[in-house]
Each structure stands twice: as structure tokens, then as C-alpha cells.
């Protein structure tokens, strides 16, 4: 996609850039807090993939649903979940988005139709089909967007979910964020195809495959799939190529890839791309710097909030194991 | 009072609930056009149409997940497993999604779903099609587990399960579908966590559930003729468990025998035995005993199959030993 031309287009890109920058800064702060032992468990960062989540989610309406993986920080922020509540969740505090029951991998926000962070690779794909199924059942016009990695494209749940979504023509958009590695396994050692999206042919559904370094381009393409779903024409399998600049999780030094490879992909950093486009469109560098400062402050405040929040009371241990019958 | 088969009672429960609540649908392999592999959903497609009685391909993991996803946004699915044997390929969804969703989301996403279908041993179906999984599912916090024996319990408990806001594992007995029993005419619900005294007695309590009661009840009858008075407690609800009911009976009879169709190691009866020794130790006149399926996959040969399962004879023999 070429540079923004009109003022409106520029402002639009600026907003997408702001969201990507928030994710980047939030993740950097999480990494720091993790290294200091303030965040426990697994912590999978989204750094490098921001254009995918922000671009895709910006193609949705409020009534639409998002289903995410354990790498859910970026998707949650792109959907507008409160950074404070997310950071507090990472810290395991009562003020967290799921009051300390979930941590990094299990963000949920019902008000925002953010249907979770799910930790079993690919397991959430049939859940997403089920949410889309409910939309079809009720004719509520909502579309479900499901993110997963290329590693998940090899699991049974993926195939069953795709087949069910296809035979029932569910309003589902499946986005494979192909960052080329499933933990330490490069895609060519695990996938029978070079391009995950060609598997759409096996289910006779629509497919698309794009590079995920330009946020507006991602949105344009996802929009096509979302509209197709909304028209009742069934699911789309999209592959969006991207790259994670960090290891699989905070405990992974990512020794299975070369420095050169990482450097090459960093050239395509979606934030740098958007920044360049904004500058070329006449935006002043200092405006962008100011924006960054505001974001940094927001993130700092969220860390501060998380830090100062209390842990959940021990009396909450058994809370929510079962739902009340009302 | 009407006399219904177990399958008819289940059918009536689902039909009545679906008539009341448009959010309920039934989904599974062969539930629609075929009217259920065991004919439990007979007539339901004709009544409710394809929108609400949904045939699926053979994809247990997939449609279990679809049900859970639909429940996340407020529908109330009934998911039929053709038999519980095939639930194993969906167990990830049942445990990792259904059971934990409410907890992981801090109460934002309750999962009002019923997983139901045929379970249990027998019928010479051999190792892969003949087994009881109550203990497996009872192990998981977040799930409720029911295993009715009579048609009226099947009716009352299924209705309760459908109305419950939690994932319920409803294990029907494959060999009981044709069994008959009186089911009261009006609507009634049976609460979870309430056992039923199937027979009063004074000298020993047999705790059992589902089709194992087919052996327990006649055994108790025969023992009564010998002058041994056995109380028979049908748990019906495995989780939640009627701890009070179990303890009250054992405190009365001072002896407990648990008869279950599942395997011995880490079986649910071990949990019941633990409860009894912990809370009613001083009342016990003999050690708590168990009769279970033998510790082998189910054999096909008629004689071996029979010998591997609990039986009237095994029960009578064990009770005599315990009373001595
Ligand atoms: C069923 C299952 N197997 C293994 C794991 C451990 N695991 C977590 S993430 C992961 C890699 C998945 O890679 P991919 O789907 O490509 O997503 P990415 O992490 O690259 O975003 C593995 C092996 C798991 N969580 N679930």
C-alpha cells in the first residue's frame, strides 16, 4: 500500500501507529517486569507482529468477536482493553482483567467481545467456530476473527474447525499469523505446504495471503474477508506473514535463528514503516515523539497501577470454579 | 404416572426444555436424520428442524469446541457423543475449555452446556467401546458429572443439567436405554448432589450408580432372603457428591461396600472410601470395600467379559465376608 495521500488517510495511519506503538511499549515494559520477576509463568511477546493485530482488529465492528491465543497482549490492546487491567493481570493482581486468574495467556473481556487468550495450540479454533455458529444461529450479523500461528495449522482442531465452519458457512475469519516458527521449529520442518492458506482449498473456502508489515494493507485485506463473512458467504483462511523479534516466550533466547535473519526482518519493522510513511506525508517528527512520550507515560502508569494493586484475597481461590445458577 | 423407557425419558426432558428455551440446541453425530445412534432424539428433528437438531460430521473435538464457543455467547447447547468412548478425542475441549472457562475468565464466561451420550461397559463391544469414564470426568473441577439409573432420574436430572449454568457430563448407560420405569406425568427436577436410597437396610450400605445397580439390587434382594439387610444408595450425581447422604447411611449400617463399573485404580469409589474413613471412621465395623471392573481392558469373549465386571455373585460373596 502506498503512502497516505489525504489528511484523513494520514490521520487514520497515525491512529493505527499509535495503537502499534502502545503494544510495543507495553510489551517492552512487560519484558522488563518479567526480568525483574514481577510477572510469572509464560510470557509470549508480540513485538514485531503489531501490524497484524492492529490492522485486522481495526477492520471489525464492536459487535464482532475476537478469539486469541496465548500470544494475546497485542490483540487485547488493539481491541482497546484497558492497559492497566492487562498489566495488573500480568502481575497477578486483583485488579487484573480476570482478577489474577489468568495471567499472560488468558485475557478475557466480555464487554469488548474479547473471547480469550487460549493456551492450547489450536484448541481455540473450534471455539471460534462455535462463537461464529452462535452468530449464525441468532442472525446477529457479527463476525468472529480468530488468530492462530502456523504451528496451530497442523493440529486436529484446526482441520475440524475449518471443515465445520465451511460446511455451515460460518461468519468466521481465520488469521494465521505466520511468524515462521512454532517455538523452535521453523515452518519448513513442520508444514506440508509452503503457504498455509492453500489449505483453504481442502475446505473449498476463500483464502488470502499477504505480508503483514503494513498495517493499512492488513486492514484492507481483512475487511474483504470480514465483509464476505457478514454477507453469509462463509469463512476465509488468511495467512499474514510476520515475524516475532523476540524469542517464543521470555524464557527463549531464540538461538535457532541467525542474527542476519533477525536483522533482515527488522528492516520490515511495521512501526518503522508506518513512521516513515507518516513523516513522508508531512507529519513532524516531534509530534511522533510527543505521542511516544504520552504512550510511555500510559504504560508507566499501568505498571505503577499493577505494582500498587493488591493480590487477590485468598478467599477468592474457589470463586468462579462454578457459575451460579440464577 | 406413565411408564417410559430410559431413552424416552431423556427424549421427553430434552423436548420439553427445548420447547421452553430457543437458546437450546442439540448437536452431534446422527442426532438428526438418523434420530440418534441409540434413538434418543427420535422425532426431534421433525419437531424442531435442522436449525436446532444439528447433525455433525465425525469430529468430536470440533463440535465439542463449537458447543463451548456457542455457550460462551449465551446459547445452551446439548452435545451428544455417540458414546463416551469417543469423547476422548474431545477431552481437551471438555477439560481445557469447558471446565476452566468460567474460572479463567473470572466469571465472565460461564459455559452452560450438557455433554451427554451412551456410556458404560458391556454388550461384548470389547476394549475400545466398553468402558466407564465417570472417574475421569469427576476428577476435573468445573465439571459436574451425572449418571442416572432409572428413567425418572434420567428425566429429572437431564432437565436440571440443561438448566445448570455449568458444563455437565451426563453419562447415560448404553444397556439401560430400553429399561422401563415410572416417570411422573408433570414436570419435575432432581437436584444434583442428592443420592437416592433405592432400598432401605440396616447392616451394610452398598454405594453404587448407573448400571452397576443392575447387579446390586438383585444381590441385595437375595441377601435379604438370607437375613442380611442391605441398604442400597444410588449416587446418581457423582460430582457434586452427596456426602451427607453417604455418611448418614454408613453411620446407620456401619459397613460400606462401593460397587462401580469403572476400573479400580484411581477410580471414583476410592474417593468415596476416603470420605467414609475420614468422616465415619468410628462407626465402621469392617473396612470399606470395593468391587470394580477388573484391571484389564474389556475382553470380547462372553465369559471373560462377564468375569471382568461386577456381578451379583461377587457382591453377595463380599457382603457375606463383611458381615461375618
Ligand atoms: C497442544 C499443544 N501442544 C504444545 C504446546 C506448547 N506450545 C505452546 S506455543 C507452541 C508453538 C506454537 O507456534 P505457533 O502456532 O506457530 O504460534 P506462535 O507461537 O508462533 O505465535 C508450542 C509448541 C501447547 N501449548 N499446546
Automatic annotation (TrEMBL), chain A:
Signal peptide: none annotated. It catalyses: N(6)-[(R)-lipoyl]-L-lysyl-[protein] + pyruvate + H(+) = N(6)-[(R)-S(8)-acetyldihydrolipoyl]-L-lysyl-[protein] + CO2. Its cofactor is thiamine diphosphate. Residues 19-312 form the Dehydrogenase E1 component domain. Its EC number is 1.2.4.1. One of its GO terms (biological process) is pyruvate decarboxylation to acetyl-CoA. One of its GO terms (molecular function) is pyruvate dehydrogenase (acetyl-transferring) activity. Keywords: Oxidoreductase, Pyruvate, Thiamine pyrophosphate. Heterodimer of an alpha and a beta chain. The pyruvate dehydrogenase complex catalyzes the overall conversion of pyruvate to acetyl-CoA and CO(2). This is Pyruvate dehydrogenase E1 component subunit alpha. It comes from Leptospira johnsonii.
From TrEMBL, chain B:
GO terms for molecular function: oxidoreductase activity. It comes from the Bacteria. It holds the Pfam family Transketolase_C. Transmembrane segments: none annotated. Residues 4-179 form the Transketolase-like pyrimidine-binding domain. Its cofactor is thiamine diphosphate. SUPFAM superfamilies: Thiamin diphosphate-binding fold (THDP-binding), TK C-terminal domain-like. InterPro entries: THDP-binding (IPR029061), Transketo_C/PFOR_II (IPR009014), Transketolase-like_Pyr-bd (IPR005475), Transketolase_C (IPR033248). Keywords: Oxidoreductase, Pyruvate, Thiamine pyrophosphate. The keyword DNA-binding does not apply. This is Pyruvate dehydrogenase subunit beta. It comes from Leptospira johnsonii.
Amino acid at each position: 500500500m502506498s503512502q497516505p495521500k489525504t489528511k484523513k488517510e494520514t490521520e487514520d495511519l497515525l491512529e493505527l501507529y499509535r495503537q502499534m506503538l502502545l503494544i510495543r511499549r507495553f510489551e517492552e515494559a512487560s519484558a522488563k517486569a518479567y526480568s525483574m520477576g514481577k510477572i510469572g509463568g509464560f510470557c509470549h511477546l508480540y513485538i514485531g507482529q503489531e501490524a497484524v493485530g492492529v490492522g485486522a482488529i481495526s477492520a471489525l465492528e464492536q459487535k464482532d468477536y475476537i478469539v486469541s491465543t496465548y500470544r494475546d497482549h497485542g490483540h487485547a490492546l488493539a481491541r482497546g482493553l484497558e492497559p492497566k487491567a492487562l498489566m495488573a493481570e500480568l502481575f497477578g493482581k486483583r485488579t487484573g482483567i480476570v482478577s489474577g486468574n489468568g495471567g499472560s495467556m488468558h485475557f478475557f473481556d466480555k464487554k469488548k467481545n474479547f473471547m480469550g487468550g487460549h493456551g492450547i495450540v489450536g484448541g481455540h479454533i473450534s471455539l471460534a467456530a462455535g462463537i461464529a455458529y452462535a452468530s449464525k444461529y441468532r442472525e446477529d450479523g457479527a463476525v468472529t476473527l480468530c488468530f492462530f500461528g502456523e504451528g496451530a495449522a497442523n493440529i486436529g482442531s484446526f482441520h475440524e474447525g475449518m471443515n465445520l465452519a465451511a460446511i455451515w458457512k460460518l461468519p468466521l475469519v481465520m488469521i494465521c499469523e505466520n511468524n515462521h516458527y512454532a517455538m523452535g521449529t521453523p515452518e519448513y520442518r513442520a508444514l506440508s505446504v509452503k503457504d498455509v492458506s492453500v489449505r483453504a482449498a481442502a475446505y473449498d473456502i476463500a483464502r488470502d495471503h499477504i505480508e503483514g508489515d503494513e498495517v493499512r494493507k492488513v486492514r484492507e485485506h481483512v475487511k474483504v474477508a470480514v465483509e464476505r463473512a457478514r454477507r453469509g458467504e462463509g469463512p476465509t483462511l488468511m495467512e499474514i506473514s510476520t515475524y516475532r523479534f523476540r524469542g517464543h516466550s521470555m524464557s527463549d533466547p531464540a538461538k535457532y535463528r541467525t542474527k542476519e535473519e533477525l536483522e533482515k526482518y527488522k528492516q520490515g519493522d511495521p512501526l518503522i514503516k508506518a513512521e516513515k510513511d507518516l513523516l513522508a506525508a508531512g507529519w513532524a517528527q516531534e509530534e511522533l515523539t510527543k505521542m511516544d512520550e504520552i504512550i510511555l507515560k500510559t504504560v508507566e502508569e499501568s505498571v505503577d497501577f499493577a505494582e500498587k494493586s493488591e493480590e487477590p484475597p485468598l478467599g477468592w481461590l474457589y470463586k468462579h470454579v462454578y457459575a451460579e445458577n440464577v | 404416572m406413565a411408564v417410559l423407557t430410559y431413552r424416552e425419558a431423556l427424549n421427553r426432558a430434552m423436548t420439553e426444555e427445548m420447547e421452553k428455551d430457543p437458546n437450546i440446541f442439540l448437536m452431534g453425530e446422527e442426532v438428526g436424520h438418523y434420530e440418534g445412534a441409540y434413538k434418543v432424539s427420535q422425532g426431534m428433528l421433525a419437531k424442531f428442524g435442522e436449525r436446532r437438531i444439528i447433525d455433525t460430521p465425525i469430529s468430536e473435538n470440533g463440535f465439542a469446541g463449537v458447543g463451548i464457543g456457542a455457550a460462551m455467547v449465551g446459547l445452551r447447547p446439548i452435545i451428544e457423543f455417540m458414546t463416551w468412548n469417543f469423547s476422548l478425542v474431545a477431552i481437551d475441549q471438555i477439560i481445557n475449555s469447558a471446565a476452566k472457562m468460567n474460572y479463567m475468565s473470572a466469571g465472565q464466561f460461564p459455559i452452560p452446556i450438557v455433554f451427554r451420550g451412551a456410556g458404560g461397559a458391556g454388550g461384548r463391544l470389547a476394549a475400545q467401546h466398553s468402558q466407564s469414564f465417570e472417574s475421569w470426568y469427576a476428577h476435573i473441577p468445573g465439571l459436574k458429572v451425572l449418571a442416572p439409573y432409572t428413567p425418572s432420574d434420567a428425566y429429572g436430572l437431564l432437565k436440571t443439567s440443561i438448566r445448570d449454568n455449568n458444563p455437565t457430563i451426563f453419562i447415560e448407560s448404553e444397556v439401560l436405554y430400553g429399561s422401563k420405569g415410572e416417570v411422573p406425568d408433570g414436570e419435575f427436577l432432581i437436584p444434583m448432589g442428592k443420592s437416592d436410597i433405592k432400598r432401605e437396610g440396616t447392616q451394610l450400605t452398598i454405594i453404587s450408580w448407573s448400571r452397576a445397580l443392575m447387579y446390586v439390587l438383585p444381590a441385595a434382594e437375595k441377601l435379604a432372603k438370607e437375613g442380611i439387610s442391605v441398604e442400597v444408595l444410588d449416587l446418581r450425581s457423582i460430582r457434586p457428591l452427596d456426602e451427607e447422604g453417604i455418611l448418614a447411611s454408613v453411620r446407620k449400617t456401619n459397613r460400606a461396600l462401593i460397587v462401580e463399573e469403572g476400573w479400580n485404580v484411581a477410580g471414583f469409589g476410592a474417593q468415596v472410601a476416603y470420605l467414609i474413613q475420614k468422616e465415619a471412621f468410628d462407626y465402621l465395623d469392617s473396612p470399606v470395600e470395593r468391587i470394580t471392573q477388573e484391571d484389564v481392558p474389556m475382553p470380547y469373549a462372553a465369559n471373560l467379559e462377564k468375569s471382568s465386571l461386577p456381578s451379583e455373585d461377587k457382591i453377595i460373596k463380599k457382603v457375606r465376608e463383611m458381615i461375618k
